[in-house]
């Protein structure tokens, strides 16, 4: 069996006296689309930021693509794409400048794919970033995260703030991307139906603790319930489910 | 690194353009003579502050702006190490800072033709150093401050927090430096602290290549070390800010250092309390002019009265008598025993007269005025400056018809003729470089009497005059003097004798020139001592400096003058006039409760003007 794209072991984070993430462990198989589910404030963003080494963990470890997320940070960033929740870009740059600036960090840059995404999202390369709408910001950030053909894409609430049509288009983009062999996507959301449409793997957390990590189909088959009801039951019970993939 | 450098330089473009625009705008504004005079006159005083303020703002804003806009995450998820991000920012910031410092220095040279003889600082600076030297002196210090601010901004994520912490740090360290600098054993500390940048220090560094090199290497090294520390702190905790509690503790520690530093003098120097103290109540309502001591007798001259104070009984000092001097304005005072000699003007019609008044304290405690010595009418008698007295002879330095003269008067009671002799020390040139006729009036000579010799400083020489026969004074030696800066041509050079040596205060570079008096007729130049007080043009006694309401007494320590004792009467208020004899120092201080004269015993340094 190949090494998982993401392997999290006992990850913890505390802000002051508040335990935000508490001994979190899960794995995401290579090539899967994994939905990272949880209520607002359940610790999803903190977990993803720890995976990206944007904040230090108080305990535990995270391996991405077989590399340690802290020790091998620079090497890892060549192979991972990340889109933050409400991504902030250099708004004084033009889109074209921002793309050029980002591309110079990487040895390999797929200009064709980026240009194609920009066209698809109808983003004018000559436009200043500050003049883009919030949704277009997110789309531009996704295009930039895709430029170096990452093996792993981590998206933090990527569809937040997008209207229904744009959100659907956005998620379809992700699906198209994942169809390319070997790519893995981990994306967080609190909207279960959204995850259910695209994710073949889900990880559910609440109050920083793991509730379930399983294949979506297995979970639905075992319980015989739609994913939304499973999610509600899990959160209401507040205890780890026995189901494991 | 290249894309990062491109982004940083683009981000700092407003700073760089701002520096250029500032120079351009000031250049344009200088077409207005009023602005030029006000701005350039004041700017030298602010010059050291300008690059430091820019350095703090630049260093604090670079990372804080990135954090505030939340764009830092964008960089941290790229395949580049946090250290590279920081070093690139530091490099770009340093380039911008160099341009800002160059702009700040350029403002001093913005109009080479600007000349106002009241603005000695700007002229002295221009005549001392070139633009490149000034920028080279300022840059390492500003760089160090920038690195410190940069380090702070790495630890915090809010501009306000960084600014507050920095302000406290700068204040604390500046306070520390200002307390310790120039004081033994902390003399020269200011050379190594980037936070205090006295104007005289800038010039001193620019003119001393060895000191300049050491200073540059030390401060540049400190800047790089701070930047390195910043990368370590940043890498250890990327994206996380220092908590409020730590910031608060850090700020509290710095405040404590600042408070402690202001009290440091209590621990650094032996405090000498006064042996006696007297509340001085003068009948005259006009200003006090001078105070001279003769052993335990102290004579205080107001513009129109003269008071004799007796300090022989330390438990009961008293005012013996105060004699009014109507229609009289005293300019200077000299004392010998119980005799007081006052240079001043007497009201007369049609023109006031210059005179030397002679007053004697009688055994009965009254004041007897002898016949004054007339010097001529105010408009024609030249510019007499000061008096010195030895035995029955009185010495007056004066400039009359461009001649620097010493006039000697016999003041013995039996003398039938007062003017005993005169000697011309120097003839001033018709054209006075770097000065005006107004300066000539204050082109003070200075005198020091020692044994049978009188030593006189004039603009172009130090002259030794043999006055063992006062009726026939003879110039025994003359040492040429060339002012380092034309603007300082007419600055007085105070004299003091200390043991077997004569000390001449040279205004720039601020040193004491030491002359060996083994042969008193021919003072031999033996070298110079560092004097950290800057340009010296204060009246004697030169080894006592006003400091924090008291007096610091200086001594010659390892080739420079350093403060060793602190004379303080315990009252709040600024010390005013000072008089010193071989054994006693007297200080007159005005407080809310009145004027107090204190006698300090044990001062051993002999001083004279």
Can you walk me through this structure?
The complex is a heterodimer of chains A (245) and B (609). Chain A is an alpha/beta fold and 245 residues long. Helices cover 36% and strands 25% of the residues of chain A. Chain A is built from 9 helices and 10 strands. Chain A has helices at residues 44-51, 73-77, 95-103, 111-120, 134-146, 164-179, 192-198, 216-223, 227-237; strands at residues 6-15, 18-28, 33-38, 59-64, 67-68, 80-83, 152-155, 184-189, 201-206, 209-215. In chain A, the strands form 2 sheets. In chain A, strands 6-7-8-3-9-10 form a 6-stranded mixed β-sheet, with helices on both faces. In chain A, strands 2-1-4-5 form a 4-stranded antiparallel β-sheet. In chain A, helix 4 (111-120) runs antiparallel to helix 5 (134-146). Chain A starts with 5 loop residues before the first strand and ends in an 8-residue tail after the last helix. Mean pLDDT of chain A is 84; it is low at 241-245. Chain B has a 4-stranded mixed β-sheet with strand order 1-25-24-23, with no helix packed on it. Chain B has a 4-stranded antiparallel β-sheet with strand order 2-28-27-26, with no helix packed on it. The radius of gyration of chain B is 29 Å and the shape is elongated. The model of chain B is unreliable at 534-541 and 604-609 (pLDDT under 50). In chain B, helix 6 (82-106) packs antiparallel against helix 11 (209-236). By secondary structure, chain B is of the alpha+beta class. Classes of the chains: A alpha/beta (245), B alpha+beta (609). The A-B interface holds A 49, 52-56, 73-75, 77-78, 80, 82, 84, 87-92, 101-102, 104-106 and B 2-3, 6-7, 10-11, 69-71, 73-74, 76-81, 237-240.
């Amino acid at each position: 069996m190949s090494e998982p794209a993401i392997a999290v072991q006992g990850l913890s984070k505390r802000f002051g006296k508040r335990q935000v993430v508490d001994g979190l462990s899960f794995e995401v198989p290579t090539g899967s689309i994994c939905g990272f589910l949880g209520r607002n404030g359940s610790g999803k963003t903190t977990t993803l930021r720890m995976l990206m080494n944007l904040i230090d963990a108080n305990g535990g470890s995270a391996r991405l693509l077989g590399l340690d997320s802290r020790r091998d940070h620079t090497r890892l960033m060549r192979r991972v794409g990340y889109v933050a929740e409400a991504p902030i870009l250099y708004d004084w740059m033009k889109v074209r400048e921002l793309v050029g600036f980002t591309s110079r960090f990487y040895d390999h840059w797929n200009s064709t794919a980026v240009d194609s995404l920009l066209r698809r999202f109808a983003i004018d390369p000559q436009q200043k970033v500050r003049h883009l709408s919030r949704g277009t910001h997110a789309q531009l950030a996704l295009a930039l995260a895709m430029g170096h053909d990452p093996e792993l894409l981590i998206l933090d609430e990527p569809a937040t703030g997008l209207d229904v049509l744009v959100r659907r288009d956005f998620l379809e983009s992700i699906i198209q991307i994942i169809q390319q062999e070997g790519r893995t996507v981990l994306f967080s959301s609190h909207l279960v139906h959204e995850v259910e449409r695209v994710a073949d793997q889900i990880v559910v957390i609440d109050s920083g603790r793991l509730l379930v990590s399983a294949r979506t189909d297995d979970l639905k088959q075992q319980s015989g319930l739609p994913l939304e009801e499973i999610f509600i039951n899990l959160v209401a019970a507040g205890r780890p489910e026995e189901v494991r993939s | 690194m290249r894309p990062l450098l491109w982004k940083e330089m683009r981000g700092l473009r407003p700073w760089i353009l701002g520096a250029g625009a500032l120079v351009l705008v000031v250049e344009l504004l200088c077409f207005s003579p009023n602005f030029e005079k006000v701005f350039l006159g004041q700017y030298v005083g602010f010059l050291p502050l300008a690059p430091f303020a820019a350095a703090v703002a630049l260093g604090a804003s670079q990372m804080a702006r990135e954090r505030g806009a939340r764009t830092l995450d964008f960089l941290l998820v790229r395949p580049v190490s946090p250290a590279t991000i920081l070093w690139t920012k530091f490099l770009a910031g340093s380039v911008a800072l160099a341009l800002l410092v160059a702009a700040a220095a350029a403002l001093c040279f913005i109009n080479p033709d600007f000349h106002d003889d009241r603005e000695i600082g700007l002229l002295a600076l221009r005549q001392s150093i070139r633009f490149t030297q000034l920028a080279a002196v300022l840059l390492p210090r500003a760089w160090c401050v920038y690195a410190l601010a940069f380090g702070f901004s790495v630890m915090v994520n809010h501009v306000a927090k960084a600014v507050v912490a920095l302000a406290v740090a700068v204040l604390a360290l500046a306070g520390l430096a200002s307390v310790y600098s120039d004081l033994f054993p902390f003399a020269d500390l200011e050379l190594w602290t980037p936070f205090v940048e006295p104007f005289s220090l800038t010039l001193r560094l620019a003119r001393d290549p060895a000191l300049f090199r050491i200073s540059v290497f030390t401060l540049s090294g400190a800047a790089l070390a701070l930047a390195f520390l910043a990368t370590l702190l940043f890498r250890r905790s990327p994206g996380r800010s220092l908590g409020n509690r730590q910031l608060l503790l850090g700020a509290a520690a710095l405040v404590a250092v600042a408070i402690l530093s202001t009290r440091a003098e209590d621990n650094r120097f032996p405090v000498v309390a006064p042996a006696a103290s007297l509340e001085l109540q003068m009948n005259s309502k006009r200003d006090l002019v001078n105070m001279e001591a003769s052993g335990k007798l102290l004579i205080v001259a107001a513009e129109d009265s003269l008071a004799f104070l007796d300090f022989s009984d330390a438990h009961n000092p008293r005012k013996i008598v105060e004699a009014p001097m109507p229609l009289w304005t005293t300019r200077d005072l000299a004392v010998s025993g119980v005799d007081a000699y006052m240079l001043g003007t007497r009201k007369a019609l049609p023109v006031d007269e210059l005179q030397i008044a002679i007053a004697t304290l009688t055994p009965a405690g009254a004041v007897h005025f002898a016949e004054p010595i007339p010097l001529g009418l105010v408009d024609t008698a030249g510019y007499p400056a000061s008096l010195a007295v030895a035995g029955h002879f009185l010495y007056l330095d004066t400039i009359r018809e461009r001649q620097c003269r010493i006039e000697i008067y016999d003041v013995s009671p039996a003398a039938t003729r007062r003017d005993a002799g005169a000697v011309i020390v120097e003839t001033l040139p018709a054209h006075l470089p770097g000065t005006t006729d107004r300066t000539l009036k204050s082109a003070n000579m200075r005198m020091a009497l020692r044994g049978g010799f009188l030593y006189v400083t004039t603009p172009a020489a130090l002259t030794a005059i043999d006055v063992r026969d006062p009726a026939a004074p003879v110039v025994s030696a003359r040492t040429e003097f060339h002012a380092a800066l034309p603007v300082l041509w007419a600055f007085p050079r105070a004299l003091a004798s200390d043991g077997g040596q004569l000390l001449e205060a040279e205004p720039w570079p601020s040193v004491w020139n030491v002359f060996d008096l083994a042969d008193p007729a021919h003072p031999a130049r033996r070298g110079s001592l560092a004097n950290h007080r800057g340009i010296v043009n204060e009246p004697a006694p030169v080894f006592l400096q006003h400091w924090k309401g008291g007096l610091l007494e200086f001594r010659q320590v390892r080739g420079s003058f350093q403060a060793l004792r602190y004379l303080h009467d315990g009252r709040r208020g600024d010390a005013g006039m000072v008089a010193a004899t071989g054994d006693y120092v007297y200080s007159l201080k005005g407080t809310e409760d009145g004027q107090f004269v204190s006698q300090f015993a044990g001062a051993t340094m002999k001083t004279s003007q």
